[in-house]
Amino acid sequence: MSEGTEPDTRVDRDGLPPGQAVRHEHKPLHYGRVPSFRPARWDFRVFGATESLGTYRWDWNEFTALPRAREMRHFHCVMRFSIPDVHWGGVRATDLVGLAPPAPEATHVMAWGEYGYSANMRMDDFLADGVLLTTHRDGAPLAPEHGFPLRLVVPHLYGWKSVKWLRSVEYMVGDRRGFWEDRGYHNRADPWGEERFSHQEEPGDGPPL
Ligand SMILES: Nc1nc2c(c(=O)[nH]1)N[C@H]1C(S)=C(S)[C@@H](COP(=O)(O)O)O[C@H]1N2
Ligand SMILES: [Mo]
What we know:
Layout: E1 21-22, E2 43-48, E3 56-59, H1 60-64, E4 69-77, E5 81-92, H2 93-99, E6 108-113, E7 118-122, H3 123-126, E8 132-137, E9 140-141, E10 151-153, E11 166-172
Parallel strand pairs: 1-5, 2-11
Antiparallel strand pairs: 2-3, 4-5, 5-8, 6-7, 6-11, 8-9, 8-10
């Protein structure tokens, strides 16, 4: 085999969403500074339209004892690059929702990070295949700048929905815009439809701006 024939990626380039190019390094991208993790003060909560109307809370020890799963997924950033084959480890959103059942009227969720960063999505996007509340990436704990200790990963939507430094999930009756969805980015963010900007939204794609 001659030099230079090794593919530099396992991604079939034609299989990437439109307008995306492969990039390998995971250069951190976020708004604001990297929060520090204080295990004694940290908790993760599910609140809002739960079936019981109550709030669910896990401290760090409790959260790390939840059943775990792993997924290998491409990560699509709205800035037109995709990182192939990122290996994530954590808790499935479906398992979390099993432990903290939503009320039947709950249609959407808001994922909340530290400092009020937020991203909204439909309940069926939150419960989609491959959605994980991750603690690990490529076999190691998340790096601080990539969301340590906990990060939502929603691999089938653009990266801004994958909330770093995740602290809570709110079940919502009806939709509400999150941080970027309120600042010019598309409410749904499906990379296969190139749903990048809010001006592309059709009536019904999101709450009025
Ligand atoms: N809490 C928080 N999460 C965030 C962001 C942010 O600003 N704050 N940026 C989002 C955006 S726009 C992208 S593309 C990804 C980048 O993830 P990375 O830094 O791990 O590559 O994180 C997302 N999650
Ligand atoms: Mo992004």
